[in-house]
Structure formats: C-alpha cells, structure tokens
C-alpha cells in the first residue's frame, strides 16, 4: 500500500556499515534508532508505534486525505444550494484527524498481516513488527485502538457516514490479503480510497445516490479507483525484485514489462470519467480546464517521465505525481464552487 515517504530503506541509518554473513551474502544494515527529526524526540517505547502510524512519513497520509477533500469539493460544486465555507472547513478538519487514525490503523494492520513478506523486502524489513519491536498481538491491539478513536469522530458527522465507514474499513482490512490471491490488490485498495468521496458527500448532507447525482458520483469514484491503480503500481516498482522473490502479487509484478501501457490506459479512463462527471453535473469551464485538463497533463507527465527501473524515480513520482493529480482534480471543483454563487 502506498503509505510511506519516498525512501528506499526506511527506519535505518544509511551510514551503518554492511557486512557479509557466513555464506558470503551481503547483509543490509541493522536497525538504528532515529537520531533526528520527530521520532528522536519521543520516548523510546513510543517510537515503534509512531512508525507503525507513519507519523514521520506524511506522503501516504495525503493518499488517504485527498479523496475526502475532493469529495467535499465535488459535493460543494454539484450542490443545488450554496454550502457555507465554514461547513466545508469543519468537515475538512474532521477528516484530517480521522485520516491520521484511519491511515495508522490501516498501516498497522497491513504491517501485521505482511510481516513475513516485509522481512524479505529490503525497503520494508525494518518495520516495527517485521523487526520484532512490536509483537503480533500488540499490533492487533494497536490497530483496534486506532480504529476506535477514528470511529469516535464519526459522532460529529451525519449517520450516513457511519454506514459509509464500515465498508471502507473492511476493504482496507482485506487489502493485504489481496496480495496473496490476486495480481490486482491495487484495485481492492482503490475502493476504500474512493469511498471517501461518497462519505464526504454524505457529510455535507448531499445524497450521492440521488437520481441526479448517482452516475456522475460513480464516475468520479471510479476515476479515483483508476488513479489509485496508477500511482500504487508505479510505487510498487520500487520493490518489484523483492516482491517476485517473496511471492507478493501485484500489478507491478503482473505487468512489469507493460506498466507504461497499462497505466496509460488507466489514465485515459481517469480523464474520460472525470469529463463525464463534469458533463452530467453540468459543471463549468473551470472544471474541464483545471480538473480534467490538469489531471490529463499530470498523469501524462508521470507516465512519460517516470523511470520504472529506478526506485528513487518511482518514489519521487508517487509523491509529487500524487500532488500534481490530486491538486488538479481539486482545483477545478473548488473553482466551480467559488464561481457558481
């Protein structure tokens, strides 16, 4: 899952010396406690749990949060009544806090389920559960605690959001198992991310399933699912050699020689679905220029310029490409909301 900062070998000191084992194999550096940054200020016992939540690695947080903001902007732009800015900001602030715990729970669960895989992948082998800093039971308890805290925030939202949250949580729980039985775990991952659009609409007292909204809403949802498949497949190319050896399935493994083609086709779907959303919702030129056009340019640049054989390039384009696409989607919707009234 795309939940980390663009770093090739997290949670270890790059200056640590490597050594060879008894068979002459080159060993990777051992874990070193953080000596700078946010984690270095925490009590030692808290560091593994902060690492499980990825509190020091904000890039993945945006993947969780951006669809909620897009959903808020979409509901505001498509609404027949003017939604006050204060309401939009209130919902955006609730989702900021909620996504910290949602992401933390999803990452902790993912690390627990994937701990045997993680020990075989260079970039993931020093995650807290994989390296033994947190036990399997402690990981499950921490997942439940974060889920509970995040769930309490639902009390500040309309009741419909509770019903939206249940499938979102269940699909995040299913995701790590998807790597075992399908080459399309990115498709599974796309659904809970894109479900944020439906939840955000409900939180603004807008019915995304009304006769007027249902088709454009689902077009935007599936555009976000396709977008998730694009960026997470590119992200997964960082670990493709280790994933093949460990038996981890995914689109990067399935389409390792045709990733550019697959991502291009998915990107065409993203843009086509966004254009359809704009037409059916009767959105204006700002949406088509900024959201549809900007998304097309951003995705095109990512696919043309990313070097899939270079992990640092995959990480860079995941991080910045996500911002380019996400802000493109968001900007047109916000411009439509600002200009409609």
Automatic annotation (TrEMBL):
It catalyses: an all-trans-polyprenyl diphosphate + 4-hydroxybenzoate = a 4-hydroxy-3-(all-trans-polyprenyl)benzoate + diphosphate. The keyword Membrane applies. Residues 12-23 have a biased composition (Basic and acidic residues). GO terms for molecular function: 4-hydroxybenzoate polyprenyltransferase activity. GO terms for biological process: isoprenoid biosynthetic process; ubiquinone biosynthetic process. Pfam families: UbiA (PF01040). It comes from the Eukaryota. CDD domains: PT_UbiA_COQ2. Pathway: Secondary metabolite biosynthesis; terpenoid biosynthesis; Cofactor biosynthesis; ubiquinone biosynthesis. It is found in: Membrane; Mitochondrion inner membrane. Keywords: Isoprene biosynthesis, Membrane, Mitochondrion, Mitochondrion inner membrane, Transferase, Transmembrane, Transmembrane helix, Ubiquinone biosynthesis. It is a multi-pass membrane protein. Its cofactor is Mg(2+). Catalyzes the prenylation of para-hydroxybenzoate (PHB) with an all-trans polyprenyl group. Mediates the second step in the final reaction sequence of coenzyme Q (CoQ) biosynthesis, which is the condensation of the polyisoprenoid side chain with PHB, generating the first membrane-bound Q intermediate. PANTHER family: POLYPRENYL TRANSFERASE AUSN (PTHR11048:SF39), PRENYLTRANSFERASES (PTHR11048). Belongs to the UbiA prenyltransferase family. This is 4-hydroxybenzoate polyprenyltransferase, mitochondrial. It comes from Talaromyces islandicus (Penicillium islandicum).
